[in-house]
Recover the amino acids of this structure.
């Protein structure tokens, strides 16, 4: 196990009616707030009105930025930065899923930067300061509610790139599982696949001696396998929604990556090319790609990691490690399919036309992945396998 520093700086307020603590949390930072949200789910559910009335009660000034799209666009980010500057905003309150929180992080960093906010995604700059941010989570998936990462789409260049800094971790996040009752089957399944993918990214690394971290990852994976199908069948099942919500945060707040050099993250990088070009739901892309990535990288030297996962998570045993590893990969694909996720790119109408271009774009900063280094030709090959 390697040395590490671990600080998950976000205060989590978890459970029913935790919204009652919102105004006090906001006032720790400012009495001038920008509320950011998406394309209407929080209006329809009444959550936005509840939040506004709680803030108005405490005389907190509110501005709003609505219409943030899934795979959040740079245009919304620029709009948010302008509002924050013009209206002297002191805190951004993101109400929604990962896209809303990510856009809000980019706004928070862009507010404090004189240059173009896209510079953070192209690695020309790193955030040196940021507005404080709070979140009210409505979809269990990305872990954005408890980490410092954001992924932004530049619609002009069709690029989707990450940015990150500890400065962008939300100061607080309200996690009331009841807010996820209205998430439909498709997004619930995609969110579950995303949570599991975050665990895979930090599980499949070249490190050794991280038995505890890998055991935690296996426990969270089993939670997803148990509760994902229940949440899909019974959307208002509190325990299922609650377990998925906490799994979302724990899967990507840095915990399971501690003591390791770095996670793999190749599959996420490849998926971002798909959602940049085809506006695909992130978790759907991952559900398709991950089993193919696994088949591509599996070899006799690294099979033991797949064998461990299969044994601990799916109860798979076989004397032959390669057979056990392949059975594990098949079990993962079967689980995603059982949630209603596709297993091929053709099922979501993605043709093979741009695979070479996507391979090049995925590797624009150099080869990707650490469990197995992939160049652009390898990425193209994985896309070919997935078609
Ligand atoms: O826009 P509204 O109307 O709110 O509808 C949203 C959206 O259509 C809907 N939704 C959210 N909560 C709902 C709801 N519908 C009904 N009831 C509710 N309670 O769900 C749709 C998807 O929302 P979105 O925020 O896009 O989903 P998700 O949380 O999966 O976020 C995906 C984005 O996060 C990025 C992805 O790449 C993608 O852009 N990621 C961010 C990460 C991070 N910051 O650490 C890591 C991830 O790997 C990921 O890359
Ligand atoms: Zn993800």
């Amino acid at each position: 196990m390697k040395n590490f520093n671990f600080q998950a700086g976000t205060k989590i307020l978890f459970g029913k009616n935790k919204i009652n603590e919102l105004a006090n949390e906001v006032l720790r930072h400012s009495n001038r707030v920008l509320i950011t949200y998406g394309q209407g789910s929080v209006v329809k559910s009444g959550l936005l009105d509840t939040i506004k009335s709680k803030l108005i009660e405490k005389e907190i000034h509110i501005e709003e930025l609505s219409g943030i799209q899934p795979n959040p666009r740079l245009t919304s980010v620029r709009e948010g930065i302008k509002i924050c500057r013009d209206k002297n905003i002191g805190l951004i309150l993101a109400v929604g899923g990962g896209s809303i929180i990510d856009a809000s992080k980019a706004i928070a960093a862009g507010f404090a930067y004189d240059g173009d906010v896209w510079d953070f995604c192209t690695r020309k700059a790193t955030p040196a300061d940021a507005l404080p941010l709070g979140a009210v989570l409505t979809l269990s998936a990305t872990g954005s509610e408890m980490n410092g990462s954001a992924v932004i789409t530049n619609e002009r260049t069709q690029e989707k790139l990450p940015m990150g800094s500890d400065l962008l971790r939300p100061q607080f996040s309200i996690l009331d599982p009841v807010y996820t009752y209205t998430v439909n089957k498709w997004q619930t399944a995609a969110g579950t696949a995303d949570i599991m993918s975050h665990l895979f990214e930090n599980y499949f690394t070249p490190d050794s001696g991280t038995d505890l971290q890998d055991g935690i990852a296996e426990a969270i994976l089993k939670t997803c396998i148990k509760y994902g199908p229940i949440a899909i069948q019974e959307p208002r099942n509190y325990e299922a929604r609650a377990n998925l919500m906490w799994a979302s945060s724990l899967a990507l707040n840095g915990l399971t990556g501690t003591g390791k050099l770095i996670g793999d993250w190749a599959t996420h990088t490849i998926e971002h090319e798909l959602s940049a070009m085809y506006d695909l739901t992130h978790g759907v892309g991952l559900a398709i790609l991950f089993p193919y990535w696994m088949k591509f990288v599996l070899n006799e030297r690294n099979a033991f990691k797949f064998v461990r996962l299969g044994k601990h998570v799916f109860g798979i045993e076989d004397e032959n490690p390669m057979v056990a590893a392949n059975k594990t990969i098949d079990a993962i694909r079967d689980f995603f399919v059982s949630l209603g996720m596709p297993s091929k790119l053709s099922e979501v109408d993605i043709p093979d036309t741009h695979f070479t271009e996507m391979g090049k774009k995925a590797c624009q900063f150099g080869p990707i992945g650490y469990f197995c280094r992939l160049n652009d030709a390898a990425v193209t090959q994985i896309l070919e396998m997935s078609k």
About this structure: The radius of gyration is 20 Å. The chain has a mean pLDDT of 97.
